[in-house]
Each structure stands twice: as C-alpha cells, then as structure tokens.
Fold this protein.
Amino acid sequence: AQSVTQLDSQVPVFEEAPVELRCNYSSSVSVYLFWYVQYPNQGLQLLLKYLSGSTLVKSINGFEAEFNKSQTSFHLRKPSVHISDTAEYFCAVSPISGGYNKLIFGAGTRLAVHP
Amino acid sequence: DGGITQSPKYLFRKEGQNVTLSCEQNLNHDAMYWYRQDPGQGLRLIYYSQIVNDFQKGDIAEGYSVSREKKESFPLTVTSAQKNPTAFYLCASRIGTANTGELFFGEGSRLTVL
C-alpha cells in the first residue's frame, strides 16, 4: 500500500518570496510522483510529474520538484511566488506496477501568497 | 473544446434521498474516476472504471453506486446509505490504462445534505 504525507496544511508567504511545499511518501513498490494544483471551487490540474530520468522536474510557471529516493520525498519549490499562485497543492503517487490504475493523494497544502 | 463536464455544480439534498451526479467527457479517455474531497483529507477514491461496462470499488465505495454504459459517461449515485454525503465530488479521466497517464478533472459538484 502507498501513503502520502504533506507536512504543512497551510503555508503563508509574501509575494516574491521563495516557498517550499513538502511531500513525503511511503510505498513498498516503486512509484511515479505528481503535484497537482487546485484553484478555488475548481478541479485539479497537473502541475508536474516525475516518471524517470532526471530527478529534478520543472513546470512551465516556475515551480520545480526534486525526487529524493533515499528520503522518499518529492518537495515542491518556487524561488519567487506571485499572488496568482494562491491555491491548494496536492502531492500524489501512483505505483509503477501491481495492476493499479489510480493515484493516492496527500491531504493538500494551502498556499496563501500575501502582497 | 475537449474536457470533462460535471453537473450540477451545486446540489442540495434532504436526508434519505438518492442523488445522481453527472460526469461526461469528450476526450476519448478509457479510464474514469470519482473522488470525494473533504477539507484537510485530500482526495479519496470512490469508484473507477477502466473500460465500458466494468468498474471497481475504490477506498470509500460504501453508500455509492456507478454505471459505465458509455465510454463518455460515468454517473455517480449517492444513496441514502451514505452516512455523511456532504462533500465536494470530483470526476476525472485518464487516457489509456498506464499509471503514467495524467488525470484530467472536472470542476466538481458540491453536495450539501440538509
């Protein structure tokens, strides 16, 4: 079985400051890793994903995440946030093998960017 | 534009009533999913379907039922047996069946039981 822990339920930050949203996972098998973003009263959108290769993955809007296998982490970072980044962010994992076809989500981290 | 359409966006129900949430996709995706979202709990899987006329229970299927008669449609019925149905419900789809596939979400349906 897999589980995902997002260590912070809320992260307040000022505009243009750096931010890190933490994600740790537990799994007995290898997994793919994802970050999704949810704006108020909307569905989720994929922000970035790690499948294989370089452990550092980037999104088109400046976010990046690094897969650390030894620490079973996939933290999300942005060097300078904007007001428009205010949203809830979900870390998720999906087992590479085992016949599953679903994502296991963390509880979410609410990012609030203040002017 | 291709996407997933959920309706209604807001729904109120009296205790003891069944209610059906609609989910339609025109992305030609094979797999479809229903998740329930509660504050501070993330998303929990209710049911999923990988092909027409086939579906599997997720982690919290009790009190819910689904059907998959068409590839485009995956309606969710919240029955009176669901003890705490007030929540935000999200439908999603995925191309193919590999776990590398991105999930596409609808905008959700918010159900409130009065």
